[in-house]
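## retry 2 of 3
previous attempt timed out at serialization; input unchanged, resubmitting
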Amino acid sequence: MKADVPRIPKLRLRIPAWVPKPVAQSIRAKYAADVDWAYRAALKESGDYSGPDEHLAEIARQDDVRRAFADVVRDDVADITERYLPFCDRRMEGVWRELSRQRNGAFLHPAKDRQAALVELFETALLCQETRRGATMTTGQVEDQRSRYLAKAEELESDASAIMATPGARRQTERHRQTKRYLRLLDAADVYKEYAAERYWADSLTSLERAHDGRARWVALTIGHKFRELFGSPMYGLTATITSVVLRRTVEPRTVRQWCDPADKARKKST
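## retry succeeded, writing output
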Protein backbone atom coordinates (compact mmCIF):
# COMPACT_ATOMS: atom_id res chain seq x y z
CA MET A 1 0.00 0.00 0.00
CA LYS A 2 2.91 2.34 0.63
CA ALA A 3 3.81 2.11 -3.06
CA ASP A 4 0.39 3.53 -3.94
CA VAL A 5 0.87 6.64 -1.85
CA PRO A 6 2.59 9.56 -3.63
CA ARG A 7 5.69 10.76 -1.90
CA ILE A 8 7.06 14.26 -1.56
CA PRO A 9 9.40 14.77 -4.54
CA LYS A 10 13.10 14.66 -3.73
CA LEU A 11 14.72 18.05 -3.45
CA ARG A 12 16.23 18.99 -6.80
CA LEU A 13 17.89 22.21 -5.67
CA ARG A 14 21.67 21.88 -5.64
CA ILE A 15 23.27 24.43 -3.33
CA PRO A 16 26.87 25.36 -4.23
CA ALA A 17 29.60 24.83 -1.66
CA TRP A 18 30.44 28.56 -1.62
CA VAL A 19 27.06 29.43 -0.05
CA PRO A 20 27.66 30.18 3.66
CA LYS A 21 26.55 27.30 5.86
CA PRO A 22 23.81 29.19 7.78
CA VAL A 23 22.41 30.54 4.50
CA ALA A 24 22.49 27.07 2.92
CA GLN A 25 20.63 25.68 5.92
CA SER A 26 17.98 28.40 5.61
CA ILE A 27 17.61 27.73 1.86
CA ARG A 28 17.18 23.99 2.45
CA ALA A 29 14.66 24.49 5.25
CA LYS A 30 12.54 27.01 3.35
CA TYR A 31 12.71 25.03 0.13
CA ALA A 32 11.68 21.80 1.88
CA ALA A 33 8.80 23.60 3.62
CA ASP A 34 7.59 25.03 0.29
CA VAL A 35 7.78 21.62 -1.39
CA ASP A 36 5.88 20.02 1.50
CA TRP A 37 3.23 22.74 1.25
CA ALA A 38 2.92 22.13 -2.52
CA TYR A 39 2.54 18.39 -1.90
CA ARG A 40 -0.27 18.83 0.61
CA ALA A 41 -1.98 21.55 -1.39
CA ALA A 42 -1.99 19.29 -4.45
CA LEU A 43 -3.57 16.47 -2.47
CA LYS A 44 -6.29 18.76 -1.21
CA GLU A 45 -7.01 19.98 -4.73
CA SER A 46 -7.10 16.42 -6.06
CA GLY A 47 -10.07 15.40 -3.92
CA ASP A 48 -12.64 16.48 -1.40
CA TYR A 49 -10.17 16.81 1.47
CA SER A 50 -11.82 17.43 4.79
CA GLY A 51 -10.24 14.92 7.14
CA PRO A 52 -6.96 14.22 8.92
CA ASP A 53 -3.67 13.29 7.24
CA GLU A 54 -4.58 9.62 6.78
CA HIS A 55 -7.37 10.73 4.43
CA LEU A 56 -4.72 12.19 2.14
CA ALA A 57 -3.39 8.71 1.47
CA GLU A 58 -6.87 7.44 0.62
CA ILE A 59 -7.31 10.20 -1.93
CA ALA A 60 -3.88 9.55 -3.41
CA ARG A 61 -4.68 5.85 -4.05
CA GLN A 62 -7.27 6.70 -6.70
CA ASP A 63 -5.61 6.19 -10.09
CA ASP A 64 -7.24 9.11 -11.86
CA VAL A 65 -6.47 11.41 -8.97
CA ARG A 66 -2.87 10.24 -8.69
CA ARG A 67 -2.11 11.28 -12.26
CA ALA A 68 -3.54 14.75 -11.72
CA PHE A 69 -1.71 14.97 -8.41
CA ALA A 70 1.62 14.07 -10.01
CA ASP A 71 1.22 16.74 -12.69
CA VAL A 72 0.29 19.44 -10.19
CA VAL A 73 3.15 18.62 -7.84
CA ARG A 74 5.65 18.44 -10.69
CA ASP A 75 4.68 21.91 -11.89
CA ASP A 76 4.57 23.39 -8.40
CA VAL A 77 7.96 22.01 -7.42
CA ALA A 78 9.42 23.31 -10.69
CA ASP A 79 8.07 26.79 -9.86
CA ILE A 80 9.46 26.59 -6.31
CA THR A 81 12.87 25.49 -7.58
CA GLU A 82 12.86 28.36 -10.06
CA ARG A 83 12.33 30.84 -7.20
CA TYR A 84 15.37 29.59 -5.30
CA LEU A 85 17.78 29.13 -8.23
CA PRO A 86 18.85 32.81 -8.38
CA PHE A 87 20.40 32.49 -4.92
CA CYS A 88 22.71 29.81 -6.32
CA ASP A 89 23.85 32.23 -9.04
CA ARG A 90 27.65 32.64 -9.20
CA ARG A 91 27.25 36.39 -8.72
CA MET A 92 26.14 35.68 -5.15
CA GLU A 93 29.51 34.06 -4.47
CA GLY A 94 31.08 37.52 -4.72
CA VAL A 95 28.55 38.91 -2.24
CA TRP A 96 29.26 36.24 0.39
CA ARG A 97 33.02 36.51 -0.18
CA GLU A 98 32.99 40.28 0.31
CA LEU A 99 30.95 40.02 3.50
CA SER A 100 33.44 37.44 4.82
CA ARG A 101 36.61 39.44 4.09
CA GLN A 102 38.92 40.07 7.01
CA ARG A 103 41.85 42.33 7.73
CA ASN A 104 44.15 41.80 10.69
CA GLY A 105 41.75 39.20 12.07
CA ALA A 106 38.71 41.51 11.94
CA PHE A 107 35.84 41.53 9.46
CA LEU A 108 35.83 44.48 7.06
CA HIS A 109 32.04 44.59 7.37
CA PRO A 110 31.24 43.83 11.01
CA ALA A 111 27.79 42.80 12.21
CA LYS A 112 26.39 42.04 15.65
CA ASP A 113 25.59 38.45 14.73
CA ARG A 114 27.26 37.58 11.42
CA GLN A 115 25.51 34.29 10.75
CA ALA A 116 22.10 35.73 11.58
CA ALA A 117 22.86 38.79 9.42
CA LEU A 118 23.72 36.64 6.38
CA VAL A 119 20.51 34.63 6.80
CA GLU A 120 18.42 37.78 7.22
CA LEU A 121 19.97 39.27 4.08
CA PHE A 122 19.09 36.14 2.09
CA GLU A 123 15.55 36.06 3.46
CA THR A 124 15.06 39.73 2.55
CA ALA A 125 16.21 39.03 -1.01
CA LEU A 126 13.88 36.03 -1.22
CA LEU A 127 10.99 38.17 0.00
CA CYS A 128 11.81 40.80 -2.63
CA GLN A 129 11.61 38.15 -5.31
CA GLU A 130 8.26 36.85 -4.08
CA THR A 131 6.67 40.23 -3.28
CA ARG A 132 5.59 42.63 -6.00
CA ARG A 133 2.95 44.73 -4.29
CA GLY A 134 5.35 47.21 -2.73
CA ALA A 135 6.78 48.27 -6.10
CA THR A 136 3.67 48.42 -8.22
CA MET A 137 1.08 50.33 -6.22
CA THR A 138 -0.33 53.37 -7.97
CA THR A 139 -1.40 56.55 -6.19
CA GLY A 140 -5.01 55.42 -6.42
CA GLN A 141 -4.18 52.03 -4.91
CA VAL A 142 -2.34 53.73 -2.06
CA GLU A 143 -5.42 55.86 -1.33
CA ASP A 144 -7.73 52.84 -1.56
CA GLN A 145 -5.58 50.86 0.86
CA ARG A 146 -5.55 53.72 3.37
CA SER A 147 -9.32 54.12 3.11
CA ARG A 148 -9.81 50.40 3.67
CA TYR A 149 -7.73 50.38 6.85
CA LEU A 150 -9.44 53.49 8.19
CA ALA A 151 -12.85 51.99 7.41
CA LYS A 152 -11.93 48.90 9.45
CA ALA A 153 -10.84 51.15 12.31
CA GLU A 154 -14.13 53.03 12.17
CA GLU A 155 -16.06 49.75 12.17
CA LEU A 156 -14.21 48.56 15.26
CA GLU A 157 -14.87 51.84 17.06
CA SER A 158 -18.56 51.52 16.20
CA ASP A 159 -18.62 47.97 17.57
CA ALA A 160 -16.89 49.15 20.74
CA SER A 161 -19.52 51.84 21.28
CA ALA A 162 -22.29 49.29 20.68
CA ILE A 163 -20.82 46.97 23.30
CA MET A 164 -20.69 49.74 25.88
CA ALA A 165 -24.27 50.68 25.11
CA THR A 166 -25.53 47.12 25.53
CA PRO A 167 -27.86 46.95 28.54
CA GLY A 168 -27.78 44.22 31.14
CA ALA A 169 -24.36 44.70 32.70
CA ARG A 170 -25.58 45.05 36.26
CA ARG A 171 -22.88 43.45 38.34
CA GLN A 172 -19.44 44.97 38.67
CA THR A 173 -17.75 41.94 37.11
CA GLU A 174 -20.00 42.17 34.06
CA ARG A 175 -19.36 45.89 33.68
CA HIS A 176 -15.62 45.25 34.03
CA ARG A 177 -15.72 42.59 31.30
CA GLN A 178 -17.72 44.91 29.07
CA THR A 179 -15.22 47.72 29.56
CA LYS A 180 -12.28 45.43 28.79
CA ARG A 181 -13.85 44.40 25.48
CA TYR A 182 -14.55 48.03 24.68
CA LEU A 183 -10.92 49.00 25.28
CA ARG A 184 -9.56 46.03 23.30
CA LEU A 185 -11.63 47.00 20.28
CA LEU A 186 -10.40 50.58 20.55
CA ASP A 187 -6.82 49.33 20.72
CA ALA A 188 -7.39 47.27 17.58
CA ALA A 189 -8.84 50.32 15.85
CA ASP A 190 -5.74 52.30 16.80
CA VAL A 191 -3.53 49.60 15.26
CA TYR A 192 -5.37 49.98 11.97
CA LYS A 193 -5.00 53.76 12.11
CA GLU A 194 -1.29 53.59 12.89
CA TYR A 195 -0.62 51.02 10.17
CA ALA A 196 -2.69 53.03 7.68
CA ALA A 197 -0.55 56.09 8.39
CA GLU A 198 2.73 54.15 8.13
CA ARG A 199 1.84 52.37 4.91
CA TYR A 200 0.38 55.53 3.40
CA TRP A 201 3.63 57.39 3.94
CA ALA A 202 5.88 54.58 2.70
CA ASP A 203 3.76 53.56 -0.30
CA SER A 204 3.12 57.18 -1.29
CA LEU A 205 6.85 57.85 -1.26
CA THR A 206 7.52 54.84 -3.47
CA SER A 207 4.67 55.77 -5.79
CA LEU A 208 5.78 59.39 -6.16
CA GLU A 209 9.48 58.62 -6.62
CA ARG A 210 9.23 55.60 -8.86
CA ALA A 211 10.30 56.00 -12.49
CA HIS A 212 9.60 53.62 -15.36
CA ASP A 213 11.57 50.95 -13.48
CA GLY A 214 9.65 50.99 -10.22
CA ARG A 215 10.13 47.33 -9.26
CA ALA A 216 13.92 47.49 -9.62
CA ARG A 217 13.98 50.68 -7.55
CA TRP A 218 11.88 49.09 -4.82
CA VAL A 219 14.09 45.99 -4.66
CA ALA A 220 17.25 48.10 -4.51
CA LEU A 221 15.84 50.33 -1.76
CA THR A 222 14.77 47.30 0.27
CA ILE A 223 18.13 45.52 -0.06
CA GLY A 224 20.08 48.73 0.56
CA HIS A 225 18.07 49.44 3.70
CA LYS A 226 18.74 45.91 4.95
CA PHE A 227 22.49 46.31 4.33
CA ARG A 228 22.45 49.58 6.25
CA GLU A 229 20.55 47.95 9.11
CA LEU A 230 22.84 44.89 9.33
CA PHE A 231 26.25 46.27 8.35
CA GLY A 232 25.92 50.03 8.77
CA SER A 233 26.23 50.84 5.06
CA PRO A 234 23.98 50.48 1.98
CA MET A 235 26.89 48.85 0.10
CA TYR A 236 25.75 50.02 -3.32
CA GLY A 237 27.86 47.47 -5.22
CA LEU A 238 26.55 44.47 -3.30
CA THR A 239 23.03 45.90 -3.34
CA ALA A 240 23.29 46.16 -7.13
CA THR A 241 24.47 42.55 -7.38
CA ILE A 242 21.63 41.15 -5.26
CA THR A 243 19.10 43.36 -7.08
CA SER A 244 20.42 42.02 -10.39
CA VAL A 245 20.14 38.44 -9.14
CA VAL A 246 16.59 38.96 -7.87
CA LEU A 247 15.46 40.61 -11.11
CA ARG A 248 17.60 38.31 -13.32
CA ARG A 249 19.11 41.18 -15.22
CA THR A 250 21.86 43.72 -14.72
CA VAL A 251 21.38 46.77 -12.50
CA GLU A 252 24.41 49.07 -12.28
CA PRO A 253 25.81 50.22 -8.91
CA ARG A 254 25.63 53.87 -10.00
CA THR A 255 21.89 53.44 -10.65
CA VAL A 256 21.41 51.88 -7.22
CA ARG A 257 23.36 54.75 -5.66
CA GLN A 258 21.03 57.29 -7.29
CA TRP A 259 17.98 55.41 -6.02
CA CYS A 260 19.29 54.89 -2.49
CA ASP A 261 20.84 58.33 -2.06
CA PRO A 262 18.84 60.98 -3.98
CA ALA A 263 20.76 63.70 -2.11
CA ASP A 264 24.01 62.43 -3.61
CA LYS A 265 22.44 62.62 -7.06
CA ALA A 266 21.32 66.19 -6.38
CA ARG A 267 24.84 67.19 -5.24
CA LYS A 268 26.37 65.85 -8.44
CA LYS A 269 23.88 67.81 -10.56
CA SER A 270 24.68 71.03 -8.71
CA THR A 271 28.44 70.70 -9.25
